[in-house]
Amino acid sequence: MSLDAAVRKTKTINIGEDINENPVSVTVRGLNASDFAELMNNYEDLMLMLFDGEFDWSSEKAIGNEVMTRTPKLAYLAIALACDEPDKAYAVSQLPMPIQVELFMSVYSLTMPEGAKETSKKLQQLLAPLFVSVKQ
Fold first, then answer.
1. pLDDT digit string (tens) for 76-99?
2. Does residue 108 contact residue 29 with C-beta atoms inside 8 Å?
């Protein structure tokens, strides 16, 4: 199997209507290593909070609301990256919060298909060396 044949899972979400009342939707995907690097470069303190043991990943139902209220700028950029429009984080910030949460939860489930506890542990291990250098 070649990498070209790999299927990238996505989800399309209706985010409202345009001025002509036509439906508007966006397609999101899971975040990849480049996206995590971008998030780390822009919001290392927030990434540290999320992945260095300060964030409670035990309740998947609360994660979307928790991230949106504690680290909204990081969430907006994560959503924009998942839409392949990294320069649109401000546009994401202008959407109603229920739509932001739905978008973030879709990105989250595509990024962490094994669930929060398992994937966050793997990410913590992967990102641990970066956090050591950030804390110094």
1. 999 999 999 999 999 999 999 999
2. no
* Cα 107 from Cα 82, distance rounded (Å): 7
Residue keyed to tokens 């998942």: 82
Q: What's the chain look like in SS3?
A: CCHHHCCCCEEEEEEEECCCCCEEEEEEECCCHHHHHHHHHHCHHHHHHHHCCCCCCCCHHHHHHHHHHHCHHHHHHHHHHHCCCHHHHHHHHCCCHHHHHHHHHHHHHHHCCCCHHHHHHHHHHHHHHHHHHHHC
Spatial distance between the Cα atoms of 112 and 81, rounded to a whole number of angstroms? 15
Q: What is the pTM of this model?
A: 0.83
Mind listing the pLDDT tens digit for each residue in 11-56? 999 999 999 999 999 999 999 989 988 998 998 888 877 776 666 6
Contact call for residues 28 and 103 (beta carbons, < 8 A)? yes
Query: Pairing relation of β-strands 10-17 and 23-29?
Result: antiparallel
